[in-house]
């Protein structure tokens, strides 16, 4: 049920005339649902902002939250939802901050005696329902965006490119290598090669639990991209189990150098650059 112009005026008048009582009760109801997770001062500020935006919308003749007169009200609701999502509140806790206005209005209008009281409350409730749904939808979008940003940050943290030696960088991979992560690995490696001018790159897969055809393709694409940048790649961390899997799957690494460990790969690169390295000591038999 859309608000008429007269109902909008009456809503603005009601909210203005009983501002202190209404906002106090509104804040009290919301505070009970949040259980002290937000300071009373901050909560009161948010309620007062919503209160002012709703008064302005009523005076401008808002009939529906989606119309042109609801722009400022939608902006306030969006800010509230986004902030609550970042602060770790649930969608329900955020929506209650809006729906609590309905209880506050009901208590206030019960004291009002008039022919239009019931009809007005139904219209006001419909508007508040729209506000609550808008808040919920905005909260969900904000939370999804936040989760996506955090996932991207974790992805970047899980694919570091480190400088091992002058002219030698390494990418120690840990965990599953999917398409999204492989793209990040390639981009970070290529950027590091450009920044450092390194002619050698070691891709260490010691921490990759299993190598299948898809993982191998991702690694090979990264090697090809690095070669196009003028860098040679060495793959390290080829454990016996992984070697058997690679052979069984018929995966060909071609002329790409492979080593059992990161230390072996670094020793190989240093020899290629003319740096003398100590010979590996044989293991003592116990």
TrEMBL record:
Residues 158-269 form the STAS domain. InterPro entries: Bact_StressResp_Reg, RsbRD_N_dom, STAS_dom, STAS_dom_sf. Keywords: Phosphoprotein. PROSITE patterns: STAS (PS50801). It holds the Pfam family STAS. The keyword Phosphoprotein applies. Coiled coil: none annotated. PANTHER family: RSBT ANTAGONIST PROTEIN RSBS-RELATED, RSBT CO-ANTAGONIST PROTEIN RSBRC. This is RsbT co-antagonist protein RsbR.
